[in-house]
Design brief:
about 20% helix; alpha+beta; Immunoglobulin-like; 1 helix; five-stranded mixed β-sheet; 2 domains; about 140 residues; single chain
């Protein structure tokens, strides 16, 4: 007796495999559309939308230090945070709006004499996922 369902079963199997492949392919494509941080630096100031005098050690005499972030792939309007820590103590959280298709932004803090020592800025996405940590020091 001949099995006439065999071609039908093969077509059904092939359809399921191809549908699964397209679903995986679609997920990979959307995964590549995530927010992409391309540059994050600490600097003395910002001029013409660009960081000036990037460094990891800054003099207290500057009076201010800035964290500059640049995103090259922004799929949709979203938010990021700059979390400023001094000696592992959270000092301030700044929420920034990021717009497509590219966006740069920065935050700054005023420096006081008591601000000498180690600092870090944690850059997080809107879901609080850590994107990058920048470490720097304030000295005499």
């Amino acid at each position: 007796m001949e099995n006439t369902n065999r071609p039908l079963s093969f077509i059904l199997f092939l359809s399921i495999v191809l549908a699964g492949s397209w679903a995986v392919f679609g997920q990979d494509a959307s995964a590549s559309d995530k927010l992409k941080l391309v540059r994050a630096v600490m600097c003395e100031t910002i001029q013409e939308y660009a960081p000036v005098n990037t460094a990891v050690i800054f003099s207290i005499e500057l009076g201010r230090v800035s964290c500059f972030t640049e995103f090259d792939l922004v799929p949709e309007k979203t938010y990021i945070h700059h979390k400023w820590y001094h000696k592992d103590r959270l000092i301030t959280v700044k929420r920034l709006t990021i717009n497509p298709p590219r966006w740069s932004s920065f935050t700054s803090v005023q420096l006081r004499d008591a601000d000498k020592g180690p600092w870090r800025v944690e850059i997080t996405d809107e879901n609080d996922k850590l994107m990058r940590t920048l470490r720097f020091s304030i000295t005499d």
